[in-house]
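Researcher: Last one for today. Full complex below.
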Amino acid sequence: MEGVLKQATDSGGRRPLVAVGVASVPVALVGGLLARGWRRRRARRTLADRRRFESLGSELATAVLESPPADLAGRIARALQHVLVVLGVDRASLLEITADGRCAPIAHGVSRPPVPALLPAALAAQWLPWTAARLARGEVTCVSRIDDLPAEAQADRRGYQALGAVSVAVVPLAAAGSVLGARPALALDTVGREQPWPDDLGERVRPLARAFATALVRRRADALARDNDELRDALAHALRVSTMGSFAAALAHEITQPLTAIAANAAVAGRAVAGGPAEAPRLPAVVADLEQDARRALAILDHYRALFRRERAAWHPVDVGALVEGVVRLVRHDPAMRDLPLDVRLAPDVPPVQGDAVQLQQVVLNLVLNACQSVAALPRGRGGVAIESVRGEHGGAIVTVRDGGPGVPAEDLERIFEPFVTAKAGHLGLGLSISRAIVRAHGGRIRATSSPGAGLTVHVDLPPTAAAAPR
Amino acid sequence: VSSAVTVALVDDDVSVLRAVQRILADAGFAVETFASAEAFLAAAPWAGTACLVLDVELRGLSGLDLVQRVRATGVTIPVIFITAHDDPATRERLERAKPAACFVKPLDGPSLVAAVHHVAS
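Model: Here's the assembly. Have a good evening.
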């Protein structure tokens, strides 16, 4: 055993993440002599340990920043395993303790066989208020025997006892990772034996603690980003479905034009062929038109297919003017809206924005459909819809959609972006809330203004290319 | 050919305009084509035009507007509407203009030719 320990102790230069399950620090239960020997050696090893923790910490930090989200849990587990080995403890866990002392594991804990790892359920059942208070102050809690805990830590002592711990160290991770008052910590303990802690334990594990904190923040950010992506995709699809009626009507109308020409030309071509050589000179022009209209029909299908595809968001530079024109084209072909006066003004200097063209187009379409619906009931000639795109003050683009409808009272201007808020019968009132979610996901902002009798204006501010990133 | 019946055709979709013109020309009509309502109005007083075949959904002045303006001048050319919209509301609006016939796109060529024959002769 001693040979193994020595070998592990001397292996400071080895890559740390491979030494798994080997104790590098002698167990301290064997008596005073050995314990004194440990203390003597400890001084020599302190520097080496510190260097190892430092390199381990920076290695973990790099690994965390570079690892794909799926690998993160594995990296954390390997780093914990290493802490276990280097400090010679039986269990190492990352957990969160709330301000009132409730515990929850935040990563799979590791343990040295045959000691089993801490079960999440067992951990969650404990109450550690004294430790929680120290964590809140950023202090390390570190006792060789839980019996040494002060009287006011009664509850904590019982908690540690229930977990089977004898020596306990709880090191706060960077406060940056705390959520809802819960503080993350690195918890180390021994089972059935005492463990003398180095005086500067907190100092020594600091690089690692910092790396763990980074890992946790990163993991949380990944989870948030994933949720956001899924939510945004689902929302965009919902918006597409809700505007499907317009799509169907516009598609039917648009594709009817080339089909009408194709049917007529095909009939003419048929007769020309039947007419024999005398009719032959007419054929090339007719066939050319047939081909051209078939192409036109396919191009229309492509256009609508792009608007309907259910795909993960694709992040590209988006031409805002072209986007608005696509929407206008749709609306002009929808029988319910084709007679409304549309005033379209596209500034020539609007820079491209970064985002998903299909989703952004859905947002503008939704706004324009809303606007058209609010003026549709007005007498003919009263109340049109104006769509405008201009360059934002700090780059980026601003799209405004203004209707000449009855408008919205000032006190309701914020509420219209909430789900299920609508003035229209038969509408779920999801369009604006979905639009807001999509615009926010693009790093932009959406707001509404209205003045009595002057209708409603919705402004969509999209940030310049450099400022936007997938969220 | 000089005795051919003259039909005016109005459609703002050039491709459709050309194709329908071919159908009517094949049937023996002399066809005058117009790409907008405004262009047709400019060709007043339409002497010799036996029938007006027109698209309802025109950019600018609509097909219905065009018929109203033509009727307002006292001219009573028979009208055949072509529309892409086969819905009750559109049909009702068109009926009010008392057309000789109404066709929904895509067109059935022989039916259109038969209707024009019926109206123009």
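The helical segments of chain B are 14-26, 37-42, 63-72, 88-95, 109-120. The CA atoms of residues 27 and 113 of chain B lie 7 Å apart.
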